[in-house]
Amino acid sequence: MTQFAKTWEEETKEDTMENLYLTFSLDNKDYAFEVRHLVEILALPPITTIPGTISFLKGVINLRGKVIPVLDMRLRFLMEPIAYHDRTCVLLVQWEDLVIGLIVDKVNEVTRILKDHIDPAPKIGDSLASRFITATGRIGDEVKIIIDITKILSDDETTLAKQIPQS
């Protein structure tokens, strides 16, 4: 009986979102974040710009009566902007009580990255990237840059995003 319970526990653990990551591309580089933060993937909706905001905040979208701020991840990562195309999409992510949209070049897949295939990110001094790039994950011959979604915005930027009326 104990053996059965242990096997069932192990199987149940495998069914959780532990070690699951959503991978996406920016400038032909692969990134990943924990899938537990993902709310929804959207085709690029119309975006209402907000004048006078930070450069990477593209504006807001109206999704089922909710107003959601949308960030361009290329601009957030200090990459050159490109024209949006048919693979460009918005990843709705959530942490605590904040939901934001992240514009990415394309979504790749949801994949499992085992803990022993994750290595700490190399330290890049005090650069912006060192704040939210937490690790690298090896999947076969590929390397994914693992980011911490909860650190995409600074505390001040998070406060500003929360001030955008939701409805």
Automatic annotation (TrEMBL):
Pfam family of the protein (one): CheW
Domain named CheW-like: residues: 18-158
Organism: Leptospira idonii
Regions crossing the membrane: none
Matching PANTHER family: CHEMOTAXIS PROTEIN CHEW, CHEMOTAXIS SENSOR HISTIDINE KINASE-RELATED
Name this protein carries in UniProt: Purine-binding chemotaxis protein CheW
SMART domains, A to Z: CheW (SM00260)
One of the protein's GO biological processes: chemotaxis
Any one Gene Ontology cellular component term annotated for this protein: cytosol
InterPro entries registered for this protein in UniProt: CheW, CheW-like_dom_sf, CheW-lke_dom
